[in-house]
Amino acid sequence: MKKVEAIIKPFKLDEVKDALAEVGIQGMTVTEVKGFGRTGGKKEVYRGSAYVVDFVPKVKVDIVVPDSMVGDVIDAIEKSAKTGRIGDGKIFVVPVEEAVRIRTGERGEDAI
Predict the structure, then answer these.
(1) DSSP assignment, residue 106?
(2) Which SUPFAM superfamilies is this protein grouped with (predicted)?
(3) CB 30 within 8 A of CB 20
(4) Number of domain units in the chain
(5) What is the pLDDT of residues 50-76, one digit of tens each?
(6) Domain of residue 23, residue span
(7) Does pTM top 0.90 for this prediction?
(8) Residue 42 has pLDDT above 70, yes or no
(9) Whether the Cβ atoms of residue 59 and residue 9 lie closer than 8 Å to each other
(10) Looking at residue 11, which CATH number applies to its domain?
(11) Where are the beta strands (DSSP E) in 9-88?
């Protein structure tokens, strides 16, 4: 099993959710986050004063999937979240050692 973590632009969430549903994803966790990458945020002007917005609002989508689905999930996220502009986000894939469904006690891939 793998955990796919995607940091995306907030307005792309619905498109990503729909694309993931098309490849068979039934559940996910979504968190509102803030951060910055190589660009280090962006410069804004407020009432004539320039300042730097260090942390840009983003959305983090977490999905745990069987190893066989990782490629389809990454492709779906990449295509649906892409705008072609700076700040489109990142996708990370990390191994998951165990999963347990609390209600039923199912373990491993049965729990996801």
Answers:
(1) -
(2) GlnB-like
(3) no
(4) 1
(5) 666 678 899 999 999 999 999 999 999
(6) 2-111
(7) no
(8) no
(9) yes
(10) 3.30.70.120
(11) 29-35, 42-46, 49-53, 56-65
